[in-house]
Design a protein that fits this description.
With 93 residues, the protein is of the alpha+beta class. The protein has helices spanning 3-14, 45-49, 75-79, and strands spanning 31-35, 55-57, 63-65, 85-89. It is built from 3 helices and 4 strands; from the N terminus they run αβαββαβ. The structure holds iron/sulfur cluster (2 copies).
Length: 93
Amino acid sequence: MEVEEVVVLEMESAIARPARPGRSGASWRTFKPVLLLEKCTKCYMCWKFCPDMAIDIEEEGWPWINYELCKGCGICVTECRPEAMLLVREELG
Ligand code: SF4
Ligand code: SF4
């Protein structure tokens, strides 16, 4: 896995839309999903199945992970058939 590429795409997603203020975070999360835009087909299965409504669709139709809401359950990764999502370990400290 090209880790640097994953981090760059995650950052691009993070600046696509601001986090919603006042919603609970997930400080205990040990893994988090990251999106590989080049594999995404905009099928929105991740959006449909996320139990925490942590995935939004940005203006150009790309899914966007709201890490303020994401609990790291991995369901979006499981449901993403094009394998455009990966679970990566949260950085500690
Ligand atoms: S399920 Fe995968 S391919 Fe479909 S919109 Fe989400 S990230 Fe993209
Ligand atoms: S890991 Fe779980 S909570 Fe986070 S975006 Fe995916 S389905 Fe939603």
